[in-house]
């Protein structure tokens, strides 16, 4: 048998190149072998920027870059017994798999790390501070909530994400146990009727995304929109109308939704008439840059002014599906 | 000053299209000839040649001693440089290093045991041959395929944290230089 190749005795330049030749899943495995290898990997500043945690029948960690990395990884953590009835505590994984989509999979016995220690390790080697998404993908959470909170409550979680099958009750419980989350995104038919979760609408989120063409048929009304206390909202709903948006703007002028900085009203097949959106509003026409991802040509904007002097700009931008009405609040006079 | 070789010259490849040849003497006194295009792949050697003012006229009379590289590694290095002397420049890193596939000829050349590979990398690093360094590191990186952390520890001879700590303690306990 060949002797070991003493990798850590190589010149730094060579060590770095060797690590860069590995798949990211192999790099993670290498980083787990000692503190020195952990530091070596961290020092490379590898391009991985987002960590998502997903809770379904097992717990999964997904890593990706902002623009989508060819080395995006999914790490899955399996318990000793996979068929345990819930609620169960967050387990010490018996087996882990690391997958780079459609390219490679590694699988091995867990090297003695709790799942939260895995999260910490991945955060450390890729220098990622926050958990971008904590998502729930079962109708009822299989895990004991206090145990989940103990495991993940100390992390700074940006967004709580509720997949299609997650029940509203499960989502409400998650919101109670992870109150530090700043954003809420349900792509989930349990959220079709906002009258069932007005307590969520009135919270001061940084971002609230409601409605999805594929998974939801959101029944939004003007009263629901006026309850929203988020900085940034996105609403996609078949009940959304140009008239409703126009009425919303009139309420905003009189002082509603004071925290709002950006609203996106996404219309699918519904007809959006500019004259209805702007009806009865005193506005000033301006040209402005399009919203990110909405092309490059300048768009027409319509500035409206609230009673306290705050200016908001309305723009109507065509999309592949129909059109979006944006409302941006730029400054306070 | 010219150094007289103690062993026969190893003629790795006859270079007809480029008459400028240089002589290199390894640490164990093996002598190699290498063409100008090939030797340029080594930044260290080419800097040396430039600084010494070697020219087509006097190059063969002035062998270059390389004390950090033995004959075995130098032979591999000269073969590699002759093989790749007309290659186009590689793209900058980022994903290139991760994704490039080692050509079969090079894989054969680098099918050597780990100790030899380790020494070859040290020699390559000293001679500053980027392409050979990339290729050697590709071979070593490929050893990680489908391996568990424990297997990686064995393959790469990685000490455990306890072993590292013990080593550090014994280093700090040992008496310093007297004086």
TrEMBL record, chain A:
| Residue runs in coiled coils | none
Q: Per its UniProt record, what PANTHER family does this chain match?
A: CYCLIN-RELATED F-BOX FAMILY, F-BOX ASSOCIATED DOMAIN-CONTAINING PROTEIN-RELATED
**F-box domain mapped to chain residues:** 4-51
> This protein is called what?
F-box domain-containing protein
Q: Tell me the organism.
A: Caenorhabditis latens
InterPro entries in alphabetical order: F-box_dom (IPR001810), F-box_Sdz-33 (IPR012885), Zygotic_Embryogenesis-Asso (IPR053222)
State the organism's lineage. Answer: Eukaryota, Metazoa, Ecdysozoa, Nematoda, Chromadorea
Automatic annotation (TrEMBL), chain B:
Q: Cite a single Pfam family from the UniProt record.
A: Skp1_POZ
Q: Where is the SKP1 component POZ domain?
A: 23-85
Gene Ontology process terms (BP): ubiquitin-dependent protein catabolic process
**InterPro entries under this entry?**
SKP1, SKP1-like, SKP1-like_dim_sf, SKP1/BTB/POZ_sf, Skp1_comp_dimer, Skp1_comp_POZ
Q: Where is the SKP1 component dimerisation domain?
A: 130-166
Q: Which UniProt keywords apply?
A: Ubl conjugation pathway
In terms of CDD domains, this protein maps to: BTB_POZ_SKP1
The entry assigns this protein to a family as follows: Belongs to the SKP1 family.
What protein name applies here? Skp1-related protein
Native source species? Caenorhabditis latens
């Amino acid at each position: 048998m060949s002797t070991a190749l003493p990798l850590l005795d190589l010149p730094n330049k060579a060590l770095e190149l060797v690590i860069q030749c590995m798949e990211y899943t192999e790099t993670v495995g290498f980083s787990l072998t000692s503190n020195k290898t952990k530091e070596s990997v961290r020092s490379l500043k590898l391009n991985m920027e987002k960590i998502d945690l997903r809770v379904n029948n097992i717990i999964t960690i997904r890593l990706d870059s902002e623009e989508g990395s060819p080395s995006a990884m999914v790490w899955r953590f399996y318990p000793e017994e996979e068929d345990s009835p819930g609620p169960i505590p967050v387990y010490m994984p018996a087996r882990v798999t690391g997958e780079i989509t459609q390219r490679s999979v590694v699988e091995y016995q867990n090297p003695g790390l709790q799942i939260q220690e895995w999260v910490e390790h991945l955060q450390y080697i890729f220098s990622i501070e926050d958990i971008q998404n904590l998502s729930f993908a079962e109708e009822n959470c299989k895990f004991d909530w206090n145990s989940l909170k103990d495991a993940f409550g100390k992390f700074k979680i940006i967004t709580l994400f509720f997949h299609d099958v997650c029940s509203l009750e499960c989502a409400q419980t998650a919101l109670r146990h992870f109150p530090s989350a700043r954003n809420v995104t349900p792509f989930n038919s349990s959220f079709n009727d906002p009258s069932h979760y007005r307590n969520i609408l009135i919270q001061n989120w940084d971002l609230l995304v409601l409605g999805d063409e594929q998974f939801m048929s959101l029944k939004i009304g003007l009263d629901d929109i006026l309850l929203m206390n988020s900085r940034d909202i996105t609403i996609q709903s078949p009940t959304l109308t140009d008239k409703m948006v126009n009425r919303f703007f009139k309420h905003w002028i009189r002082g509603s939704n004071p925290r709002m900085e950006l609203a996106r009203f996404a219309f699918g097949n519904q007809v959006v008439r500019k004259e209805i959106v702007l009806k009865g509003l005193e506005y000033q026409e301006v040209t402005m840059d399009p919203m990110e991802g909405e092309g490059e040509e300048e768009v027409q904007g319509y500035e409206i002014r609230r009673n306290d002097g705050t200016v908001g700009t309305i723009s109507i931008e065509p999309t592949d599906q129909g059109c979006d009405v944006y409302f941006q609040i730029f400054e306070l006079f | 000053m010219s150094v007289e070789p103690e062993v026969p010259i190893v003629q790795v490849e006859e270079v007809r299209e480029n008459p400028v040849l240089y002589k290199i003497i390894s640490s164990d006194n093996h002598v190699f000839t290498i063409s100008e295009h090939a030797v340029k792949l080594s930044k260290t050697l080419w800097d040396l040649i430039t600084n010494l003012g070697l020219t087509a006229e006097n190059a063969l009379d002035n062998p270059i001693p390389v004390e950090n590289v033995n004959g075995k590694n130098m032979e591999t290095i000269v073969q590699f440089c002759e093989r790749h002397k007309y290659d186009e420049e590689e793209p900058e890193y980022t994903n290139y290093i991760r994704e490039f596939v080692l050509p079969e000829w090079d894989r054969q050349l680098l099918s050597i045991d780990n100790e030899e590979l380790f020494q070859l990398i040290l020699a390559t690093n000293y001679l500053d041959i980027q392409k050979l360094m990339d290729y050697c590191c590709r071979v070593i990186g490929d050893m990680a395929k489908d391996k568990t952390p424990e297997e990686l520890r064995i393959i790469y001879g990685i000490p455990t944290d306890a072993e590292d700590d013990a080593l550090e303690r014994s280093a700090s306990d040992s008496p310093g230089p007297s004086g």
